[in-house]
Amino acid sequence: MRSKKSALALAALLILTFAAVPPHAAATTSYVQSLLGLGYGPLSVQPASRAVPIFAPGDDLWVQSYSNSSTMTLILATPNGSVFPSVELPPGGLAKIFAFPSTGPVGQWTLDAYLGGGLAQVVFPVLNATALPPPAVASVGLSKGDLVLGYSVADTSAYGIQACLMGPGAGGESTFQLPGSVGSDMTVSLNGSSISAFAPQAQQPFSAWFQLYTPRTYSTAGGLVTYDTMAGQSQVLTLGASTEPSTGLMATYLSLRTGPYDLRSYVRTSAGISAYDTPYLMVNGSAWVSLGACSQIIQVTSGSFQLSAPLNGTASSWPTSLITTYNDHGIDSFTLSGVPAPETRIGLGNATQAVSLGMVTATASGADVVESDAYGGSLYVTARSFPALASVALDFENVTTVAFPVSVSGPYQTESIQPSLGTVDAFAVSAGTPIGNATLTVDKAGSQPAHLKTGRGGALTLVLPPGEYNFSMSVGGTTVSKVVQVYPGQTAEVTLTPAAAKFPALSLALAVILAAGVAADIVVWRAYLLRRKALR
What we know:
The chain has three helices and 43 strands. Strands 5, 15, 16, 17, 18, 19, 20, 21, 22, 23 and 24 form an eleven-stranded antiparallel β-sheet that branches. Strands 1, 2, 7, 8, 10 and 11 form a six-stranded mixed β-sheet that branches. Residues 1-27 and 501-536 have low confidence and may be disordered.
C-alpha cells in the first residue's frame, strides 16, 4: 500500500489560478481570492486561498463572499467548457449556487469570481468514488470460540482504510449506557433524515440531542487535508420511562453522500451532560448501518490484516460480512463482502460441562467441514457449503470414542446432540490411605486400554457413555481389577485396594539364624560407633 503520494499529486492539480485574459476584460487581482470561500455546506466553507474542496457527484457547491462592500459575480463552467448563468452574491453573502448532478460530468470544473474589476479563477475536481476490490481472504480459522479471518489488501493509492466484521441484519440502531442516575440504556435509531431514541427503564426524565459528522477532504498547498465536518443536527428530544421512542428530524448542513459518519449523542441529566460517539456508514441515499455493532474495527496499515469475532453469543450476532471503508483521491467510499466460511455451533448436551472442563474432547469431521473448535462447552464448525453433514466425535479420555452424525441445513445456526452419559468416581487406596498419582488402567471391550493418573487425593472422575468398563491397578507386582457398570445419568463408585505383599513362613532354624545375624549386625555397628567417638 502506498502513502499519500498520489494525494499530493492530485493536490498539485487543485491550484488557485488567475486568468491572464479574463472574460469581461477584468483585471487579474490577487485580493479577490482572499475574499472568496468554497465549501460543501454553510458550515464547511473554507477560504479558497487556503483550501479547495474535493467534490463528488451529488454534492452541493456553497460559496461565501468575505467582501463587506461589493457584489461578487460568479460564473461556473463544466470540464467540457459549458458555462452556467452567472450568480450575484451580495456583500457578505453565503449561498448554494449549484448542485452537482449525481450522473456527472466529472473532471476539473472552473469557478470565476468577479469582484470590483478583479477576477479569481478556482479550478477544482468533481470525482467519482474509486471502486476498490474487497480485501482477499488469506486464511480462515477457529480459536477458543472465536472466528479468525486473515485478509490481504492489493496495492492501492487509498488511505485511511478501516475494516470490521458485521453480523446479519445490521441497521441504523445503536445502544448507549446512560449515567447511573438514569438507570437505563438508550437506544438510538437513524432512519433517513429522522432520528429516534428511547430509554424504557429510565428512572428520571432527561433530554438528548444528536450531531452527525463526516470526513470531507480539501486540497491545500501542503496536500490533502481531511476535516470532520458537521453534516447535521437534531432537535432536542425529551425522554423518560417509555417504550415509545421520541422522534425528531435531523437538519442537514450538506448533501449526504455514501461513506463513513460519526454520530455524537449528547445526554443531559440532573448530573450534567454526557457524550457518546458511534461510527455509522451510509450505504445509499437514506440507509444507515451502525458500525458500533462491529465485533472489531481496525485501522489497516499494511498489506495484510486479521480480524476476529466471538461466536459465544447468539447465532444472529455472528459475522456475515466484512465492511471496509477508505479514502481515495479525497473521496470516501466502502466495500462490502461476505464472510468466506459460514459457521455453525453444535451444542453438546450432557457433555457440555465435561467438554468445558477438558474431561471430554469434541471434534467434527466430514467432507463439508473446514475446521472445528471446542470451546466453552460448545463445538464451533465452519463448512464449505450447506447443507453440511458432520460427524461429531466425543473422545472420553482415550477410553472410548462415540460419534454422532449431525446434519446442518444452513449457516449461522445452532444444532445440538444429546449424548447419554454417566459418571465414575474411582479411588486408589492402600491400607486406608489414598494413593496419589497412581496409574489406573481403564478399558472397554473393543477399545484400547487407557492409562490414567489419580490426583493427589487418590481419586479419578470419568464421564463415560453407558456400558461395562474394567478398572485395574498394579502395585508391587500385585494387580487388582474391578468391573464397573455405567448407567445414564448415574454415578458409579469403584475403589481399588491392592493386597499387602505376602511372604512364605520361615522354619525355626532359619528364624534363629536370621535373628543371630541381626544381633551380630547390631554388635558390629555399636563397636564402629564407639571407635569413631574415641577418635574425636
